[in-house]
Amino acid sequence: MAQYLNAATLLDLARAAQARATAPCACTKTPLDGWQSQPLSLDETQFEDIGTLTPEDDPEPTFSEYLPGKTNYCSADAPIAPRYFPYNRCAVWQCSLCTRLYLRYVEGGGYFVDRRIRALRAELIEDVPLPG
Predict the structure, then answer these.
(1) Is residue 14 packed enough to be buried (19+ CB in 10 Å), middle (13-18) or exposed (0-12)?
(2) Alpha-carbon distance 107 to 100, whole Å?
(3) What is the pLDDT of residues 18-37, one digit of tens each?
(4) Residue 34: C-alpha distances to residues 4, 59, 77, 95 (Å)
(5) Spatial separation of the C-alpha atoms in residues 81 and 86, rounded to whole Å
(6) How many CB atoms lie within 10 A of CB 74?
(7) Burial environment of residue 17 by CB neighbours within 10 A (0 to 12, 13 to 18, 19 or more)
(8) Residue 43, SS3?
(9) pTM of the complete model beyond 0.90
(10) DSSP per-residue codes, 61-123
(11) What is the gyration radius of the CA atoms in the chain, in angstroms?
(12) Nearest-angstrom CA–CA distance, 70 and 6
């Protein structure tokens, strides 16, 4: 299993990656600021899986979302709250060419599977505890 990344570790990785990622890269042809289906143009061979936000001791993470204010699932400014859906089901991938980080998960429904991807931006990470 991939290494579990808590919110603090994720924030450190995101800050470091953003500081290094200064040049354009093919991985950024399509803006990935908000969640979207993984573009067919994205070359998966240039990405490395560096960790997971799914806790090993939580077999069924919550489907509750953290969307304060007027943000929604697809908003570019929606917070990245690792304990909440869909982040709690994400892998963290890094582009081997430019070091940018991305969150990825598989959205599954009755008859389809959709790979979703979003750029990881440090300023959006929030360590919000689950209620209860």
Answers:
(1) buried
(2) 22
(3) 999 888 888 878 889 999 99
(4) 23, 26, 7, 18
(5) 9
(6) 11
(7) buried
(8) coil
(9) yes
(10) --------TT--TT-TT--B-TTSTTGGG-EEEEETTT--EEEEEEEEETTEEEEEEEE--GG
(11) 14
(12) 26
